[in-house]
Design goal:
This protein is α/β, with parallel strands linked by helices. The protein folds into 2 domains: 7-362, no CATH class; 374-474, Immunoglobulin-like (Sandwich), CATH 2.60.40.1930. It has helices at residues 42-47, 93-101, 126-145, 164-174, 195-203, 217-221, 224-227, 255-274, 278-281, 322-325, 351-362; strands at residues 7-11, 17-21, 33-35, 70-75, 115-117, 156-161, 181-187, 236-238, 241-243, 282-287, 295-299, 302-306, 337-340, 374-379, 383-385, 390-398, 413-420, 425-432, 439-443, 449-457, 464-465, 467-474. The protein has a 6-stranded parallel beta sheet with strand order 5-1-6-7-10-13, with helices on both faces. It has a 5-stranded mixed beta sheet with strand order 15-22-20-17-18, with no helix packed on it. β6 (156-161), α4 and β7 form a beta-alpha-beta unit. The termini are far apart. This is Lecithin:cholesterol acyltransferase.
Length: 478
């Protein structure tokens, strides 16, 4: 039987909240949305007159709100992205519907909620959003507790994807949230940051090429949140050494914003070390086995990323390297992290991840799907301009500890499928593979839109763990 006495709070990742502006006539922000991609039409929202890029933050915003009338409205239902700023991410409908199926519900009429969807203005500092979170979740918890009986001692359980975990951590550790929180479940959260954020901030957003002549760099560099996604761990190659962002000069970026981002991470880490119960309430679900940028080298004012530390490759979820996904001063083989071979963009939709979340919420065993023994890696570009081929590099390898079930070999082929967000198959290719070797599937003539790429085995009995990624096909004619 499910235990629904607590209040579950869902926080999305960066760009995962719809945003609007309160009208001059007092009409709600929900009536004036400017960031709410629907059906994959992301380019329309970036190119229209009132777009997200018109809401660049002022210099020196720090941990404040700019007073521009922008408000978060809801969780993004489908794929969302700003090309070149962060990985295209799937929406949160699958996760929310799973929680509803377990008996969690939002407030209706006089019925208090034990499910709180907590969108936030992802442009702003995670400190600001952590403080604001208290004004959302604590009144909801009080209303739930007011029912008395088994609900009187209810607490909060956070289920957070990506950057949402940083917001929740700040609330828990720095805003008194630990007093009313039972569990913190993070899905692909960059506890120590992600190297991609450095590359995107330093190099700027792909621009000046055909339809992508929009300069998105100024908007990206105005976001305290994106700076706070930069790695805390030493990942900047300097000869044979690796340095932290504050131990060198990061080209193109304001030194004060870089230092403040590092301070955000170190302050959180110090607070977690000082509170004995912090580690016990944390449940990390991380993506693994995917090609992931981990280190970076600066030359000529540009950032060049690498997937390894010297000869070592820790992999990750395609966006967050394993070194950035593991918190609490833990080693990469820590027992507080559940590892799932999946891409960052799809962790919140992955069936095994949803099983894990269910078990953590209900404290009851969930019947597992059979785990496979073949791991797939897929390298899928975030952005392709219409007319260019979509090229997907894939490989597979056996689990090192798969034992006799592995039969010593990977399957002879993998199936790569491209489909729309509504599930319509656009293209499919079967590619021959070998153990550990890369093979490329190439798709030409795909229509513009936000598409999903799935890599799986051709034989259902081959024991292949499928992986999923999203890609934005930018239209050649806006």
């Amino acid at each position: 039987m499910n235990n629904n006495n607590d209040v579950v709070v869902v926080l999305p990742g960066i760009m995962g909240s719809t945003l609007g502006v309160r009208g001059a006539d007092g009409s709600p922000a929900a009536d004036h949305l400017f960031w709410a991609p629907s059906g994959g039409a992301i380019w329309k929202l970036i190119r229209r007159r009132d777009s997200i890029l018109d809401h660049e933050l002022p210099e020196g915003i720090g941990d404040e709100h700019p007073g521009d009338g922008v408000e978060p409205v809801g969780l993004m239902p489908d794929v969302h992205a700003i090309p070149g700023i962060w990985t295209p991410l799937k929406g949160y409908d699958v996760l929310v519907n799973q929680l509803r199926s377990l008996g969690y519900h939002e407030a209706t009429g006089d019925r208090p909620a034990n499910l709180v969807l907590a969108p936030y203005d992802w442009r702003l500092s995670n400190r600001y959003n952590g403080q604001r979170l208290a004004t959302v979740v604590e009144p909801a918890l009080e209303r739930w507790r007011a029912q008395g009986g088994p609900y009187a001692d209810a607490r909060l359980v956070f289920v957070c994807h990506s950057m949402g975990g940083l917001v929740a951590r700040w609330y828990v550790e720095k805003c008194g949230g630990h007093e009313v929180t039972r569990k913190l479940i993070t899905l692909g959260t960059p506890w120590r940051g992600a190297t991609n954020a450095i590359e995107q901030l330093v190099n700027g957003v792909r621009k000046g090429i055909g339809p992508l002549s929009i300069n998105l760099t100024g908007f990206a560099r105005s976001l305290p949140s994106l700076h706070q996604l930069m790695p805390e761990f030493a990942c900047i190659a300097d000869g044979s050494e690796y340095l932290k962002t504050t131990e060198t000069t990061v080209p193109e970026l304001r030194t004060d914003m870089v230092a403040d981002a590092m301070a955000f991470h170190t302050t959180l880490q110090e607070a977690e070390r000082a509170r004995a119960d912090s580690r016990g309430m944390a449940h990390l679900i991380v993506g693994i086995r995917q090609p992931t940028n981990t280190t970076v080298r600066f030359s000529g004012g540009r950032a060049t990323v690498s997937e390894s530390f010297g000869a070592e490759n820790d992999f990750g979820d395609g966006t967050v390297p394993l070194a950035g996904a593991i918190g609490h001063d833990e080693r990469l083989d820590t027992n507080i992290a559940v590892r799932v071979p999946e891409n960052h963009s799809a962790l919140q939709c992955n069936r095994f991840v949803l099983d894990q979340v269910q078990e953590l919420l209900t404290a009851a065993p969930v019947r597992r799907r059979d785990l496979s023994s073949v791991n797939v890696r897929a390298r899928v570009p975030d952005l392709v301009v219409e007319g260019e081929p979509l090229e997907v590099d894939v490989s597979a390898e056996m689990d090192a500890d798969a034992g006799p079930l592995a039969a010593g070999a990977v399957p002879a082929s993998l199936e790569v499928t491209v489909h729309t967000e509504k599930g319509r198959v656009l293209a499919r290719e079967v590619v021959a593979i070998s153990n550990g070797g890369d093979t490329r599937a190439s798709f030409a003539g795909l229509p513009p839109g936000t598409h999903t790429v799935t890599v799986t085995g051709t034989d259902p009995g081959a024991g292949v763990r499928p992986v999923t990624s999203s890609v934005l096909l930018w239209p050649a004619t806006p």
